[in-house]
Amino acid sequence: MLWKLSPFLAKSQLRYQSQLATAYLPTIYALSTAPGTKSAIAVVRISGTHSKYVYHQLNNSEKKLIHRRTLLRNLYGPGKNLLDKALTLFFDSPKSYTGEDLLELHIHGGKAVTGSVLNAIGSLNDRNSGIEIRYALPGEFTQRAFQNGKIDLIEVEGIRELIDAETETQRRCALSSFNGMNKNLFMLWRDKIVNNIAQLTAIIDFGEDTEIEDTNNLLQLVKHNMVQLKQEINQFIQKIEKTSILQSGVKVVLLGPPNAGKSSLINSISNDDVSIISHTPGTTRDTVEASIDVNGYKVTISDTAGIRSHSSDEIELLGIERAIKKSEQCDLCLLIVDPLNKPLINEDLTQMIQSMYKEGKEFVIIVNKQDLLTDENQSKSVMDALREKFGDKFPIITVSCKTQEGIEPLVKQLTQIFQRLSETSDESDPIIASRRVKEILHSDVLYGIDSFFVTTDSEIGGDSYDVVMASEHLSHAADGIGKITGDAVGIEEVLGVVFANFCVGK
Ligand SMILES: Nc1nc2c(c(=O)[nH]1)N(C=O)[C@@H](CNc1ccc(C(=O)N[C@@H](CCC(=O)O)C(=O)O)cc1)CN2
């Protein structure tokens, strides 16, 4: 269930609701569909106490609004000027996305219609009469949903990632934030810490009446639990670091001699026309970066300068240098071979490949231009030459970008590598976490646990170890988890970060 609140979060959000009850919030409105483009339908959203007022003014009627009832209505601007015939949809507070009264106007998507409807709503702003209506800030609808306890911060980040998702795997990742997988884990961790703080509190409260040995045993138990928890958190961080490749894109670098067909290969494995194809050797002089979608994976591909020994062209040499640098930072290297080229692979490249192999880089050799090979022997001798050079170290795939022959097996091979790199091949959903979550895990949660170890390690055995201090360190760790989900005091500073990249209307 997407929007169900956990009891753990409900507590803090009640705190927010009570803050909101005293704070005055203007009614906000915005175009929720993409601005600046012509579309069949556009959706305008209005949220806040004056949503009903906006409806009655635009509709020029006093008719009672019914929760979630869709009505086809004429909308009028100032001076009873008919603006559009629209579908209107009203949600009664608190059963709406934002938790406030929320009105949706599904209008025609032209520039003039959307402009006139937005102007008409804006013109209803009348502060003197206590009717404050203004255009929404980026992410403000979602911010209100958070503040009204509809969603927690993990879900907020999930929504943003869902909207930003460009590929199938990114979409799946974003949705996994919704199914509460991470949230449940975080709550479990927090419960564990809180339980162990309770154990420490027992030492503080009853310490003087208990045997030193008992106290030490209790402390050892808490330490043991925290060692386990730390391991669990570190494993989680490792996993999110692997899957973060899905968000940022797998870094692929394309190598090969000039005119081997690097640019056409990019076009073949993706559906977009991203690279310029030319038949003059050395056209792709500098590295050109493009983000493409290869079978649902985001791939940041660098089309490098063709590597040619003894190039006299200074610009080209610079490009080659950059290609080598790129290759050092990439997750996967694709080497394109032109079977008609002599030598097949020059010395510079061979050396580079050998050293990358030593570093454990993923590598695929692609022999292009199969359509130009007239007899089978020709093709076989190319393969033999490559196998002689590289053995079975890398997969070698023959393709023709011109006829698309071999492209499908190549994409399959690449997909397997992407799965391996991001650990998404197993059945479970990939997990992702924002940079914010990762930072808090390190700087608050793990830091708190480590400080607990430092305090207890230095004092244990003596008769005066500082249990209060040790327990405070664990509280810091627990508060860190609260910061992640939004269940923490001083959360305002966090909100700015979470909502910074939202679009208006969401
Ligand atoms: N037209 C439209 N489409 C949309 C949205 C929207 O707000 N409007 N959404 C917005 O992002 C998404 C759907 N998400 C939504 C989430 C909650 C509620 C809502 O009304 N929640 C109430 C009632 C829940 C229920 O009846 O089960 C609530 O949480 O109390 C609506 C949409 C995607 N499509």
From TrEMBL:
InterPro entries, sorted: G_TrmE, GTP-bd, GTP-bd_TrmE_N, GTPase_MnmE, MnmE_dom2, MnmE_helical, P-loop_NTPase, Small_GTP-bd
Record-annotated membrane-spanning stretches: none
Coiled-coil ranges (or none): 212-246
Gene Ontology terms: biological process: mitochondrial tRNA wobble uridine modification; tRNA methylation
Molecular function terms, GO-annotated: GTP binding; GTPase activity
Pfam families per record: MMR_HSR1 (PF01926), MnmE_helical (PF12631), TrmE_N (PF10396)
Ranges of residues in domain TrmE-type G: 249-419
Annotated keywords: Coiled coil, GTP-binding, Nucleotide-binding, tRNA processing
Family annotation (PROSITE patterns): G_TRME
Alphabetized CDD domains for the sequence: trmE, TrmE_N
Family under the similarity heading: Belongs to the TRAFAC class TrmE-Era-EngA-EngB-Septin-like GTPase superfamily. TrmE GTPase family.
HAMAP family with a match to the protein in the record: GTPase_MnmE (MF_00379)
The protein's name: TrmE-type G domain-containing protein
